[in-house]
Amino acid sequence: xxxxxxxxxxxxxxxxxxxxxxxxxxxxxxxxxxxxxxxxxxxxxxxxxxxxxxxxxxxxxxxxxxxxxxxxxxxxxxxxxxxxxxxxxxxxxxxxxxxxxxxxxxxxxxxxxxxxxxxxxxxxxxxxxxxxxxxxxxxxxxxxxxxxxxxxxxxxxxxxxxxxxxxxxxxxxxxxxxxxxxxxxxxxxxxxxxxxxxxxxxxxxxxxxxxxxxxxxxxxxxxxxxxxxxxxxxxxxxxxxxxxxxxxxxxxxxxxxxxxxxxxxxxxxxxxxxxxxx
Length: 278
Hints:
- By secondary structure, the protein is α+β, with helices and mostly antiparallel strands.
- The chain has helices at residues 15-25, 37-47, 92-106, 121-130, 161-164, 168-171, 182-185, 226-238, 256-262, and strands at 6-9, 55-59, 62-72, 75-83, 111-117, 133-143, 157-159, 192-198, 201-210, 215-223, 244-251, 266-277.
- Strands 1-2-3-4-5-12-6-11-10-9-8-7 form a twelve-stranded mixed sheet, with helices on both faces.
- A hairpin with a 4-residue loop joins β9 and β10 (215-223).
- α1 packs across α2 and α8 packs parallel to α9 (256-262).
- The protein starts with 5 loop residues before the first strand and ends with a strand.
């Protein structure tokens, strides 16, 4: 258990084996992290994970850890990084992180980024040691089905997501999180869209999809004015068909943070978005 790590490309194994390695590396994490080969395949598509540049680490034939690398132009993203229980605290995480950074450089990426739960102090220390720094916080909001609906005088209209996404850049005042980038939204399945204003020139829109346990996931919120953000959130929470609501990785400086809070959403988790120049 003290030998040099053997690090290989994740393309050397099947998707099922890589998914199993992910689950093993996240054993004992703050939240359950299941991942099947089918789910991994969807993540590869939506999050632009590059399996050939993602890594697996071994001590002889024993799995030590795994690291997923996403690539978009000259930006690389860590889509998952974990060490198995028996190898934690043995310095193996730093070795794997160093290998991942070198892999990103070989891909000619100029920036490496990731998200990490703010309570995950060990991981934050690892990433800081590697040269990463916190750029901003990303917030996860929840609204329970038992919260009273908002009263809204604004009626939301439905339109195809592909139509609303033509206004993505106009209605976003700051860069979205990796999972909510335009390139991810364009290939996301089973998504519906609601908007305010004129269909040809909406003042705000939301994209959402239905998840398990009657939970609705809001995958994009867009507006440039605070009043439009407030009206959109009021309209969303007045919709009888939208019950328990969840939105992931809303930037802390977004105009939607105040609007979501005003309409019954509560912060359930917070992540640091970390970056480094390569």
